[in-house]
Design brief:
Blueprint (H helix, E strand, L loop, with lengths): L25 H24 L5 H33 L6 H29 L6 H32 L2 H14 L13
The structure holds fe (ii) ion (2 copies).
The site of one fe (ii) ion (FE2) has 4 residues, from helix 2.
Amino acid sequence: MKPQSGRNQHRGGCLAPTDFALLADPLEFIAEDHLREREVCAALDRIATAPQPSAQDIASALAFLGKELPLHLSDEEEDLFPLMRRCCLPEDEIGRMINRLVQDHHHASVDTPEVISLLEALGSAEVTEQERQLLRRYSSYARRHLILENAVVLPIARLRLSESDLESLRLRMMQRRGISPRTNTPDGA
Ligand SMILES: [Fe+2]
Ligand SMILES: [Fe+2]
């Protein structure tokens, strides 16, 4: 299976949250979240090694880990993975892969609050050796997880999910973000 080639592999310094307009294609939205997560991993590595961590790296990482990542994990665990378990063929061998990814999510749920507390307390101080190890371990686990999802899960999802599966995924992701299906804007906006 070929690795997913997003149309925007290099987001560069762009650390803005994923654009809600991409929810028209929910798998594209998830792929964009993955690009953003990869940028945040790079920011965590910079924070781990810089003599003076950048305030922008800290703010971007905190915004992603605190707000976007929990939504992304729910998109996958509550909607995408169950749809895939239902639609995929036995030869896709998706069940074992999804079990492993869900386990990764549980580890992330335990480790993320620790990383958030570290970043919140950091200010402009250089990180300690113990903090450095935590940040690097976290980003390397996250990268490994991203590789599996981009190279295996998303390509199979594109093959197997029907139009109506994609529509239900899209509606659930919009609902999770409080976006009205009619206007594509946050409810009450
Ligand atoms: Fe993901
Ligand atoms: Fe995931």
